[in-house]
Amino acid sequence: MKPLRFKNDTGEFTIQQPENISSLYFPLASEVGLKSAITPNLGGDSKINQETFLLEPVSVDNLHNNRSTRNFWIRNQDGTVESISGASAQQEADKFTDNQEDSQLTAGLMWQKLDRQLSRLNLKVETTTFIPREDNVEIMQISVTNTADVAQELTAYAAIPIFGRSADNIRDHRNVTSMLHRIKTTKTGIEVCPTMSFDERGHQLNQEIYYVLGFDEDGNTPQEFYPTVESFIGEGGSFIHPRAVYQSYEGVSSDNQIDGREAMGAFRFDNFTLSAGESKRFTILLGIDRNEDSIKSIGEKYSKLGIVQEVLEETKQYWQDKVTVDFKTGDSNFDNYMKWVCFQPFLRRIFGCSFLPHHDYGRGGRGWRDLWQDCLSLLLMEPSQVGHMIVNNFKGVRLDGTNATIIGDGDGNFLADRNGISRVWMDHALWPLITTKLYIDQTGDVDILTKQVSYFKDPHVKRGTTLDEAWNDAYGNEQRSEDGTIYTGSILEHLLIQHLTGFYEVGQHNIYRLRGADWNDALDMANENGESVAFTAAYSGNLMELAALIRLLESQTQTQSVEILEEIGLLLKKDTAIYDNVGRKHQILDAYTNQCLHNVNGRKVTIPLSELALNLIQKATWLRQHLQQEEWIDLNEEEGWYNSYYDDNGRPTDGDYNGRIHMMLTGQVFPIMNFVATDKQIQKITRSADHYLYRKEIGGYRLNTDFKEIKSDLGRMFGFAYGEKENGAVFSHMTVMYANALYRRGFAKEGWKALKTLADTSLDFETSHIFPGIPEYFRADGRGVYHYLTGAASWYMLTMVTEVFGVQGRAGDLVLHPKLLAEQFDENGKASITTQFSGKTFQIIYDNPNHKGFGDYVITSAECNGIELSITDDSYAFLSKEKLAKLNSESHQINITLQ
Question: Which UniProt keywords apply (predicted)?
Fold first, then answer.
């Protein structure tokens, strides 16, 4: 039997003896701030932000030894003690022996249940943990059942250490900050309100109250309290052998106050008796609030067992309803796996790129590319919200084509770079267009290109190479004109600036400069001379796409021209001879950025849309030809690939170095995706990738071959052990984009190989050691790491919906062009997808009675609600946006027959 099994079609899964696997953790969160990580033995942490940790912050490498976390103890009349989480000294000693207790973890979207047989006590315990979506409280509901043949008298203790301060204080002034604690016992639990938030740059008075409350099923409250760590563990005791429990230490009563100690949310309930087979339930609440009355209200609400059960079911249903995409293939495990992949973008929206045990870097929030890539999945699940988000996100673009990198709270709020560090990631201009194009395709709202939006302004100018000495805080973070008013430009203007400035910022090989890094943040040591061939190919495709959007704007709105900032004219040179001249490109970019140092004149010029589109097409065409001529490596008749980068010494990264092959996956993805690579070249690339990068047993395609050197002239990635993170791991994000690129070019079999190997490895629990979903990468031994918070999930979902199942938008029309292989249909030859489009829900059923694969079948019939749909080239079924608009808001069924 597989150790991890799905229970139904909602993604719910179970695993036996989960404590036997290291580094497992599960996310829990509300929609209003509280974020938790919980392990199979109830470890992990809980917080709102970097400054507000309820439980002690943890990283993945101290999960196994951190005892400062949730626990609940039970003691019988004979003095036998056990922990419901298995976190006692004796229970841990029993692990991997014949005395190990039976345990099982069951989990679904945002909830976890732990079942454990407490063998010494003859008790069965169930602990369900979740966070209501609208409250900043984590709820532990504990059910204790007597499995003995006789009645038992028992005593229960809750024990949750309260960290109650900034994550910075885990070592920095840890003891000093405990002196700020003001701890009090109340009738229902323990509250901690530190006097201030400790920061030597400027201490702030604190308003946050951290609390742990407890109730039994009848609403009875604790009898004694242990409000400090010292009082609970006792002299010489520990969190896995607390003397208050083992030796029945007397606690304090309610209405006590203790100052300046490490706080403990520990208390004892009144003794209770369970007859044989009888159960008793307890509810433990741990949370953060600023108002004591609110805490009292939370306690009153969730002290009622029925309310807890009701809210648990509401929470389960709420997150299930969020995932509006559902797949049905011939593999139910894969379908359940996709539930988690489709849920992961919601987790990244909530957690950002921090606040889970692997993600122990940064101080919360998302980065620039995260904003845009997360919108890709939201467009497929919550499209009504995305248009507003896109418009606001463009406020982060600077007039020099770079962008803010610190994302504030809410949509459209950006902050100056932290600590004055100026850094430019050269890929950042790529993602807004990709997301905006998908939005237009899904909705038909081409008018979004004409929306007027402000620009971000801070002291960093000339693409991060110098400072605007005239800027100050009083100026604000919005670009101004010479008359002092805030300057705004259309979204189209923002996109033009982003792509045109990048076209001129090239290195000695006439390839876009790498700058601080591109998508691969670990290529961060080639700021002077590094160049990114991979993303130059990506930008060539973006220029073509932007030209197509301009043509669409022209045709659908009957608009012939557009107004743009006068200075942009410098970047629209018509002389194509300039394109080969690196020095001239630098002069043009310098001239433009010099005119945008502080304020702009604000004058606009009118330019025909057709002329704009032609200008972009010329640039894109030149880039494609340049890449094909200069960057293709023809190894032999069977193999070849594109160079990916130039290092800071101007040397190419890829090729045959005296028999040692250097190949990077990133450099192949974007030439394929953006029609730089020819079909013949793609065949050579796939053979080369299979030869040099593919390792099925560890997830599929590695990010690169082993360079066997520490390239300090390219990036920190080469300092990592080979097979770890960016240095040769199976990096899920780029593997998924490789699959997406192959599908776009019609190489479905090769694309599915990349997707399926990732899924198979994720679901092979004995190899990946992760709960369902896609991790950031698989390391050298196949273990999945940096789980949940990865852009790979959005791209995996996007690829499955738009490429594999072929549900695509084209300027608001629904186009169905499946690329399913024979193995992706069930035994009856059917495969289906339920998804959102144009504000409506569609179940699209493909019937493939002859079990043919992509390339062999054609669409012979298509209908929506029994009404025939148009079919083009035997491959595309259409539902126009005009017909879509006439459909009601109910669910609709589309049936397509493939022969």
Answer: Glycosyltransferase, Transferase
Q: Which amino acid is it at 395?
A: K
Q: Measure the CA–CA gap between 750 and 743, rounded to whole angstroms.
A: 8
Tell me the two tokens of residue 611: 């002329």
Query: Using one digit for the tens of pLDDT, what is the confidence trace for 701-747?
Result: 999 999 999 999 999 999 999 999 999 999 999 999 999 999 999 99
Taking the C-alpha atoms of residue 284 and residue 215, their distance in angstroms, rounded to an integer, is: 7
Give the separation between CA 672 and CA 684, rounded to whole angstroms.
11
Query: Structure tokens of 787?
Result: 């789980």
| DSSP reduced 3-state for 6 | strand
Name every residue whose Cβ is closer than 8 Å to that of residue 672 and which is 6 or more positions away in sequence. Answer: 682, 685, 738, 741, 742, 744, 745
Strand 604-608 versus strand 632-634 pairing type: unpaired
d(C-alpha 740, C-alpha 184), whole Å: 56
pLDDT > 70? residue 253 = yes
- pLDDT category at 68 given cuts 50, 70, 90 is confident
Nearest partner of 569 among 497, 461, 513, 483, judged by Cα: 497
Rg (CA), the chain: 29
How many of the other CB atoms lie within 10 Å of CB of 746? 14
With 0.90 as the threshold, say if the pTM is over it. yes
Q: Using DSSP bridges, classify how beta strands 460-461 and 813-816 pair: parallel, antiparallel or unpaired.
A: unpaired
How many C-beta neighbours within 10 Å does residue 200 have? Answer: 7
Confidence of residue 201 (pLDDT cuts 50, 70, 90): low
Q: What is the pLDDT of residues 32-41, one digit of tens each?
A: 999 999 999 9
Per-residue pLDDT, 200: 65
894, 864 contact by CB (below 8 A): yes
End-to-end CA distance of the chain: 38
Q: Read off φ and ψ for residue 565, nearest 5 degrees.
A: -55, 135
Residue in 364, 369, 340 with CA at minimum distance from that of residue 351 = 364
Over residues 408-412, mean pLDDT: 72
**Are 789 and 359 within 8 A, CB to CB?**
yes
Confidence (pLDDT) at 889: 87
**Confidence tier at 197 by pLDDT (50, 70, 90):** confident
* Strands 123-130 vs 257-259: parallel, antiparallel or unpaired: unpaired
CA angle at 836 for the pair 834 and 841, rounded to the nearest 5°: 70
Tokens of 51: 């400054």
Confidence at 572, pLDDT banded by 50, 70, 90: very high
**Could you give the CA distance from residue 546 to residue 523 in angstroms, rounded to a whole number?**
28
The answer to whether 197 touches 165, Cβ cutoff 8 Å, is yes
The tokens for 745 are: 């070019």
CA distances from 825 to 645, 836, 860, 874, 882 (A): 40, 21, 17, 20, 31
Distance, in Å, from the CA atom of 409 to the CA atom of 399, rounded to the nearest integer, reads 23
Which amino acid, residue 388?
A: H
Structural domains present in the chain: 4-322 (2.70.98.40), 366-548+576-591+598-603 (1.50.10.10), 805-898 (2.60.420.10)
CB of 86 closer than 8 Å to CB of 103: yes
Handedness of CA 521, 526, 528, 529 (dihedral sign): negative
Burial of 888 (0-12, 13-18, 19+ CB in 10 A): exposed
CA 489 to chain centroid, in Å, comes to: 31
Specify the DSSP element, H or E, that contains 681: helix 679-692
Tokens 């208050």, residue? 244
Both tokens assigned to 668: 């192949």
Buried b (16+ CB within 10 A) or exposed e, 570-596: bbbbeeeeebeebeebeebbeebbebb
**Token pair for residue 96?**
């991997």
Model confidence at 212: pLDDT above 90: yes
Task: Write the secondary structure of 64-117 as one string of H (helix), E (strand) and C (coil).
Answer: CCCCCCCEEEEEECCCCEEECCCCCHHHHHHCCCCCCCCEEEEEECCEEEEEEE
Would the pLDDT of 419 be above 60? no
Sequential DSSP letters for 16-47: ESGGGSTT--EEEE-SSS-EEEE-TTS-EEEE
Give dist(CA 47, CA 164) in Å, integer: 9
